[in-house]
Write a structure and sequence with these properties.
With about 100 residues, this protein is of the alpha+beta class. The chain contains 4 helices and 3 strands. A 3-stranded mixed sheet has the order 1-3-2. A hairpin with a 2-residue loop joins strand 2 and strand 3.
């Protein structure tokens, strides 16, 4: 969060996702963003990391296509959270689980 580089990479990912989903980008698109932090950093860095991504209006160009987005909601989760969600039904029965990557 010390520079805009990570945010710019996030914009590329947003543009790719909007294109993949064929979402009309002729007007401003409202974005809900889910981001991850290492579990050991979550309590200390959740608030500043979340604020880093909150932007009212962002205009950018990706592959010669203009985008205008507003990031309305940012949810910060422990990294690896998305990897376990498809198996949550089985995992929730286990008192303690670890994500190893």
């Amino acid at each position: 969060t010390e520079s805009e580089e990570y945010f710019i990479l996030t914009l590329f990912a947003i543009a790719k996702e909007l294109n993949h989903r064929r979402i009309n980008t002729d007007s401003c698109v409202k974005i809900d963003l889910a981001v991850g932090l290492p579990p050991s950093h979550l309590s200390r860095l959740k608030s500043p990391f979340t604020q880093y991504f909150k932007k009212s209006f962002v205009a950018f160009k990706y592959n010669d296509k203009d985008f205008l987005i507003t990031i309305e909601n940012v949810k910060t989760f422990p990294q690896g959270y998305a990897a376990i969600i498809p198996s949550y039904g089985a995992i929730r029965q286990i008192p303690k689980s670890y994500i190893i990557y």
